[in-house]
Amino acid sequence: MSYLTQESSVGAASPVELYRFALGQQVWTVTSGREVLIYQNEPYQPVVIRRSAIEQSPEFARNGIDLDCARDFAVAQLFAAARPNGVVSLTVFRNHLGDDEFITWWKGRVASVVWSGSLAKIRCESIFTALKRPGLRAHYQTGCRHALFDAGCGVNNQTFLLTGTVAAVSGLTVRSSAFLSRPAGWLTGGYLRVAGVPRMILAHSGNSVTLSALLSGLAVGVAFEAFAGCDRTLATCQAKFGNAINFGGFPWIPAKNPFTGDAIV
């Protein structure tokens, strides 16, 4: 029996939904059904999860869905300390018990998570919201518009890598003797990475750095990777990275606005 036949049937319909979350190479697969289901060689584990209704609307903001689940659900915990570094995508598949046909019911990404007691509400927005994002990101500005180490920047982050182990952790402050091998501020604006998860470094002085948010798994004795930071100026781009040819800013923009009505000489 086909999916559409069962879907339109009053007595034969037994819908089951499969939820596939993905963040980079990490994948979480769960189902609203009572038993483990195998789809595309991936096992979907049964969990208690409730979905809001899907609304068909020309307004993209109204096409999202909310998922209610336990607060310790792995995907919800990704947003506990800070937003994950990357997009958590969600694909909802739908099937009927006793039938082998699956359809893609909904696709989008996790926008935020809200906690209430023992529950978590995962708010997701439709993939079509991507159509509202601006296509051009280049701005006429004095500072570099490129993200450090991205394709526009062109600098290899492995050339500016510092490795070590954590000596102490206090809140957002991390201490290690490895930081002493670089001058103060060398890591400011860069990032520290543990087990593949990065956090931006807001300040670097002596043997300590200050992170932008808590980092799961950060503890005494844990190995880390730290990468140099950049203040987006042409001088730093050339002196620190030797990369002035790829500088993405316009440092010679006139500081005086010729349209303000006063003299420019």
Structure description:
This protein is mainly beta and 265 residues long. It is built from three helices and 16 strands. It has helices at 3-7, 74-77, 234-241; strands at 15-23, 26-31, 37-39, 42-46, 50-51, 65-70, 89-96, 103-116, 119-126, 161-165, 168-170, 173-175, 191-194, 197-205, 208-211, 223-227. It has a nine-stranded mixed β-sheet with strand order 3-4-2-1-7-8-9-6-5. A hairpin with a 2-residue loop joins β3 (37-39) and β4 (42-46). The longest helix has 8 residues, at 234-241. The radius of gyration is 25 Å and the shape is globular. The protein starts with a helix and ends in a 24-residue tail after the last helix. The relative contact order is 0.12. The mean pLDDT is 86.
Summarize the structure.
The chain has 265 residues and is mainly beta. It contains three helices and 16 strands. The strands form two sheets. Strands 3-4-2-1-7-8-9-6-5 form a nine-stranded mixed β-sheet. Strands 10-16-13-14-15-12-11 form a seven-stranded antiparallel β-sheet, with no helix packed on it.
